[in-house]
């Protein structure tokens, strides 16, 4: 017979376990309902889901501090970048996090033999039936249908026990809905489907359809931007010499791809010695340089990025990071610790390996296949409102880690002013709405660990010797204030000064005016009237898609000069470009706005503003400043 004390102890233990299992709190809720998808049915209870629990990483709260110590021009440790191994070890989840999550899962009936801890210790994964997952996460899974015939699995929200929440960043697949239809079997998409492009309505920059007869001259850079116009605008007079030690990566997403003949057409007119040159292709997760679809929507972005990056940095080899479907894919390729279920991949958005569809990618996933380039330019984006805070923060932390390893990551700021892709704004609840009036910032451009690049223009009737204005031809430079990320210290003085000295005529119903959040862009470059070779002819294009690779080219030239004298790449540049030492190295843009959401948007002003940032770069002044740093 058991003693009364033993029975009471057993009951207490049972009640405690029951209490722990029942004290669930909502951990994530979908940021926005999927547009164009209908909830078709409840997911069958026997369907097996690949559950991935992303454990809370240690020390991510120190990312800004650590990056500042490596990137601020006044820091004693400037440029002392970390190795990939040091970064992975420093941010690995704690033993407590691993134990707590494992105990929760086993208490809930998941046998320990079913659990796998990833080598980086960042993820615990296991397969579970829909019934098990729904019970575990206190949720309901549904199958969503798209007019294309594709289906997706998702839940609206999910919960975890209160004592587990601090040890879990996110769980997938759950609320992170893929807002794009899946790839067709051929790997190509129809127009308007599965787009990540900047702007989001297209894979390429915008065009007004104007065909161009060459050659233009510096006398008409207000109508036709060429490499010579950019050299004149930004005082670019440097030929790289350390090209075998330097690296510059351009990210493209299949099916967007360059045409070799387009590159040569451009080179014949603007850089004859480069005819026949091609970027160094790094195929990521089956990313291919397709030539089947030859149209602006399939070739415009890649042709633009490569024609200008290759010409402005000649003879620097350019690395083409030809990725599959999402931002996480290219991050996988440069950091093995971030790879599928080792870091940021989302089963609802990223590729499946092997891909069972006809012609699908059937090779191992591209995990850590190359060292991160010294500079990476990405002319693509999505709306911040389309991702959860947990998802955004986990991906943003990876950009911070790349900065710690010495990589400059540039993202274009968007082409719809203060609105999101396709001009969509937010309603009072922060949801995308055609009738919304609240500003809709982008992502990943609002991540404080990337450099956000806006767009300027040579004003009509002006020359390259006159001040530029914010881009207001065809597109409006994306800019504003994040609804997710706090303000980083490097921009606090500049942004606070803007809000105080030039207070916007909007209130909290239209943008996050708290004065405590990340603001963007950080700097700008020309984004209007670019002449590009496309589908065998010349056309004019517009967008921050133009601006990002140009800034990336300048940073690449600066890195070359530093490497030549035995120094390292500059890495994360934001603390430097906001500092007082660098204030005179930029052309301040004081005219033009970025209208959207039925408003004039913000205005360009003296100093930093949420239209053009700190201004446009002057390489002749930036170069010596960066060369004097350790």
Q: Overview of this structure, please?
A:
With 630 residues, the chain is of the alpha+beta class. It folds into 2 domains: 20-57 and 92-172, no CATH class; 212-628, Peptidase S8/S53 domain (Rossmann fold, 3-Layer(aba) Sandwich), CATH 3.40.50.200. The protein is 26% helix and 20% strand. It has 14 helices and 28 strands. The strands form 9 sheets. Strands 11, 12, 13, 14, 16, 20, 21 and 24 form an 8-stranded mixed beta sheet that branches. Helix 8 (296-313) links the parallel strand 12 and strand 13. Helix 8 (296-313) packs parallel to helix 12. The termini are far apart. The relative contact order is 0.14. The model is unreliable at 1-20, 179-203, 341-349 and 351-362 (pLDDT under 50).
CATH superfamily of the largest domain: Peptidase S8/S53 domain
The CATH top-level class label of the largest domain: Alpha Beta
Helix count equals 14
Do you know the CATH topology of the largest domain? Rossmann fold
Summarize model confidence as the mean pLDDT.
86
Quaternary state of the chains? single chain
Shape: globular
Low-confidence stretches: 1-20, 179-203, 341-349, 351-362
Helix content: 25-40%
State the distance separating the first and last CA atoms: 77 Å
Second CATH tier, the architecture of the largest domain? 3-Layer(aba) Sandwich
The total domain count is 2
Helix/strand-derived class? alpha+beta
How many strands, what sense, and barrel or not for the largest sheet?
Answer: 8 strands, mixed
Evaluate the radius of gyration. Answer: 25 Å
């Amino acid at each position: 017979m058991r003693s009364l004390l033993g029975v009471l102890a057993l009951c207490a233990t049972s009640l405690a376990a029951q209490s722990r299992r029942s004290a669930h709190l909502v951990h994530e809720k979908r940021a926005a309902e999927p547009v164009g998808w209908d909830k078709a049915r409840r997911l069958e209870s026997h369907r097996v889901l690949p559950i991935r629990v992303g454990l809370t990483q240690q020390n991510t709260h120190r990312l800004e501090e650590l990056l500042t110590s490596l990137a601020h021009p006044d820091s004693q440790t400037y440029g002392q970048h970390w190795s990939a191994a040091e970064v992975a070890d420093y941010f690995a989840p704690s033993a407590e996090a691993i134990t707590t999550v494992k105990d929760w899962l086993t208490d809930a009936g998941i046998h320990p033999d079913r659990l796998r801890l990833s080598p980086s210790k960042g993820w615990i994964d296991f397969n579970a039936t829909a019934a098990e997952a729904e019970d575990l996460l206190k949720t309901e899974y549904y199958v969503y249908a798209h007019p294309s015939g594709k289906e997706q699995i998702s839940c609206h929200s999910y919960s975890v026990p209160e004592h587990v929440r601090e040890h879990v960043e996110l769980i997938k697949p759950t609320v992170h809905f893929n807002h794009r239809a899946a790839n067709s079997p051929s790997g190509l998409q129809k127009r308007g489907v599965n787009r990540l492009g900047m702007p989001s309505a297209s894979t390429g920059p915008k065009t007004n359809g104007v065909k161009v007869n060459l050659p233009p001259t510096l006398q008409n850079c207000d109508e036709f931007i060429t490499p010579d116009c950019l050299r004149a605008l930004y005082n670019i007079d440097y030929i790289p010499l350390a090209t075998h030690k330097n690296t510059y990566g351009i990210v493209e997403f299949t099916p967007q791809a360059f045409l070799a003949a387009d590159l040569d057409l451009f080179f014949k007119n603007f850089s004859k010695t480069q005819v026949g040159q091609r970027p160094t292709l790094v195929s990521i997760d089956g990313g291919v340089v397709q030539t089947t679809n030859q149209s602006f929507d399939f070739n415009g972005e890649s042709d633009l990025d490569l024609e200008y990056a290759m010409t402005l940095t000649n003879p620097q080899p350019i690395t083409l990071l030809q990725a599959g479907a999402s931002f996480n894919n290219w991050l996988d390729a440069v950091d093995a610790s971030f790879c599928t279920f080792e870091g940021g991949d989302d089963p609802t958005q990223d590729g499946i390996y092997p891909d069972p569809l006809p012609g699908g990618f059937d090779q191992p996933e591209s995990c850590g296949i190359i060292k991160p380039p010294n500079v990476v330019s990405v002319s693509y984006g999505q709306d911040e409102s389309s991702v959860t805070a947990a998802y955004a923060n986990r991906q943003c932390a990876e950009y911070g880690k790349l900065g710690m390893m010495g990589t400059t990551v540039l993202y274009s700021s968007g082409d719809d002013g203060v609105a999101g892709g396709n001009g969509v704004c937010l309603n009072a609840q922060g949801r995308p709405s055609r009738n919304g009036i609240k500003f809709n910032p982008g992502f990943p451009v609002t991540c404080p660990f990337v450099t956000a690049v806006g767009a300027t223009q040579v004003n009509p009737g002006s020359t390259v010797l006159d001040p530029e204005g914010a881009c207001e031809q065809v597109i409006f430079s994306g800019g504003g204030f994040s609804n997710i990320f706090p303000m980083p210290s490097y921009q606090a003085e500049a942004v606070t000064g803007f809000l105080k000295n030039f207070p916007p005529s909007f209130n909290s119903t239209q943008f996050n005016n708290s004065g405590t959040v990340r603001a963007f862009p950080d700097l700008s470059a020309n984004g209007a009237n670019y002449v590009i070779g496309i589908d065998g002819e010349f056309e004019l294009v517009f967008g921050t898609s133009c601006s990002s690779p140009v800034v990336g080219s300048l940073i690449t030239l600066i890195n070359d000069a530093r490497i030549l004298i035995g120094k390292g790449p500059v890495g994360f540049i934001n603390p430097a470009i906001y500092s007082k030492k660098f204030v005179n190295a930029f052309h301040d843009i004081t005219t033009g706005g970025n209208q959207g959401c039925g408003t004039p948007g913000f205005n360009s002003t003296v100093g930093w503003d949420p239209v053009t940032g700190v201004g446009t770069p002057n390489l002749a002044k930036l170069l010596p400043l960066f060369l004097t740093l350790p």
